[in-house]
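Data card: per-record layout.
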Amino acid sequence: MNRLKDDIDKPRSNCGIVGVYNHPNASIMTYYALHALQHRGQEAAGITTFYPDEKTGKKRFAYTRGEGLVLDVFSDAKILTDVLKGEMAIGHNRYSTTGSSKRANIQPFTMRYNSGILSISHNGNLTNTDTLWKQLQDDGAIFQTTSDSELFLHLIARSKEKNIIDRIREALRTAKGAYSLVILSEDSLIAARDPHGFRPLSIGRLKVGDSYSYMVASETCAFDIVSAEYIRSLEHNEMIVINKKTLETGEIDSYKIEDITPEARHCIFEYIYFSRPDSKIFNHNVDKVRRKLGKNLAEESQIKADDGEKITAIAVPDSGNTATLGYVNINNKQNNPTAFEIGLIRSHYVGRTFIAPGQDNREFKVKVKFNPVKGVIENRNVVVIDDSIVRGTTSKSLINLIREAEPKQLHMRITSPPIKYPCHYGMDFPSREELIANDYKDEEEIGKAIGVDSLHYLSIEKLLESVPQDKGVGYCTACFTGKYPVPIDANHHKLSTEE
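The structure for this 499-residue chain is written out next.
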């Protein structure tokens, strides 16, 4: 058996997180929200709930975690209705970046400590992991996982601050790197984004009787599935607390993590690839940004057919769909007739594993996921729009597959610049040596290597022109430029790719 995720030539996603407060079916709400966020992690899923003990009134916790998709982990409805009781819950979809994919690393993580119980879900990647592990181990800490997310629990438990809010804030100041968090304490739902705000996190609410249920999630598509109202994005360097006071006043308590807020460094790949196009992240619609990526790509790199016939634009589904609309729109405005056609059909029923005939037959694995529409492609001048190329191996196989449909010309356009550096903030790329952009001197050579008549990547200038320009907000482009906003531990890359 071959694990499909190891064979797809794309940046590996980070994780999806959800928190629900004051809902009689908090676990069910979390389940649906995690299902909407399934694209952010397909390796494992988990939910933790807090509920009062019927005899003592003290808070207890229940959790279910397992490998696989959300629908698989919670296939027994009784888990949600009978086991995961309570009006507070947090959830997590996992893709391993730091730490191995073993079962112990499945979140949420929960602990009992001298002030009660606490549960946490983390999206992101810390950059001072090695330093913190050594310090805590020297101080007597015993780790149950190999995930950097566990560090938050140890830092909170060992804090000398008197209340839980100050304990968490101190822990967040100690941890460096990228984190969006949801935390359950015995009476509150707490959420936070790191001072640079690499990863998205939004707040929503839902009317429940005479009161409101509050939600926090990585993307707003998690609110849509349960008809929750979007309130706003958490700001970078912000920690919020939702509790009974919030229900009484309608106000959410907000705290700064660091006293001075730096300029944000939002992950630009959230717009390019990770987030769903129907989501809002960082207070902006992903769909609009992707359309602009496609428009700028068309302005930067026109394709003229040698025979004067129109261009047929096809997207690599699903992430390329919206950008292709923008690309076609600009081409037609510039009197370069271009039609958007469904030229690739994607199978949505490919599981985490499948049996391939022969040994490591990569082209067959691409065929399992995609199939070209010959009537759209045959004898046409085709341009393929995709979001990125990492190793180039799957792109090459995909181009070979499209060539079987016998296009007249075959070009490729990419809505991001060449990826040349690894990410240390929550995306999992191969090593720098494996990235195709470092193997060839320019896009012409890369195009020849993957088998297209021409290739063009969107420039970094046009990429930055495509994304929202808010005051105090910049973007992390380290995977393209090698400029890392937050310092990296010397051994961090080794730790973050442990499998």
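Known properties of this structure: The first strand starts at residue 2 and ends at 3. The longest helix spans residues 286-300.

See the next section for split statistics.
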